[in-house]
Amino acid sequence: MSCQGVGGADGSRSDGAGPEGLGTGVPAVGPAAVAEAELATRRGPFRIVALRDPSDGREHAALVLGEVCGGEDVLARAHSECVTGDVFGALRCECGDQLEAALDLICAEGRGVVVYLRGHEGRGIGLVEKVRTLAVQDAHGLDTVDSATALGLPVDVRDYGPAARILLHLGVRSVRLLSNNPAKVRALREHGVEVASRVPLLMPARRENVAYLTAKRDRLGHDLPHLDGPRG
Ligand SMILES: [Zn+2]
């Protein structure tokens, strides 16, 4: 467990917590790659922990509420960056709704972590290519999977190693993961995070996103039992 520095006054740490022992071959997270500070938000006071990941080089963030170091069954979300949904409130996906709901649930519980994963835009293809797939969806009636493959793009290349490294850095012992995606549970476990359970984060379908949600259910294996209509 690595807790030093978390909650410290200067936002620094010195023990270079990293993935050693996980057999990943990824270099440790050094003190220069992590910073943290108090962060007042609309929902109340959180802590922000920023971490430059040694594997992908991107700067990821964790919004932390309460004492999570050494915590078991910590409510947590590993949220994939979505500029359109998270920032601009787009309705064609449910990312923004899920981010808000996760923060609300964490506030209600008084403890938890949202890890915000950069570089996960469009399931890892990046913003330009994601927007290209949106245009292809609209022009040709393709779903989120076929629009990617039609452009020669991978369907999902997200790396959850950074999420694992942040949670381990925070000293979280185990999480209840807010997600509808069983693959995300498997990925975090592969990266050394103990996932005690998965907590569904079911957003009501909208006219604008029901096709997207249905594709996630039927083609990407998401557990979305609240959707109407047959599988497949
Ligand atoms: Zn989205």
From TrEMBL:
Pfam families: GTP_cyclohydro2 (PF00925). Its EC number is 3.5.4.25. Zn(2+) binds at residues 82, 93, 95. Binds 1 zinc ion per subunit. Residues 1-25 are annotated as: Disordered. It is an enzyme of class 3 (hydrolase). The keyword Cytoplasm does not apply. The active site is at 156 (proton acceptor), 158 (nucleophile). GTP binds at residues 77-81, 98, 121-123, 144, 179, 184. Residues 34-200 form the GTP cyclohydrolase II domain. Residues 1-10 have a biased composition (Gly residues). It catalyses: GTP + 4 H2O = 2,5-diamino-6-hydroxy-4-(5-phosphoribosylamino)-pyrimidine + formate + 2 phosphate + 3 H(+). PANTHER family: 3,4-DIHYDROXY-2-BUTANONE 4-PHOSPHATE SYNTHASE, GTP CYCLOHYDROLASE II-RELATED. Catalyzes the conversion of GTP to 2,5-diamino-6-ribosylamino-4(3H)-pyrimidinone 5'-phosphate (DARP), formate and pyrophosphate. Belongs to the GTP cyclohydrolase II family. This is GTP cyclohydrolase-2. It comes from Streptomonospora nanhaiensis.
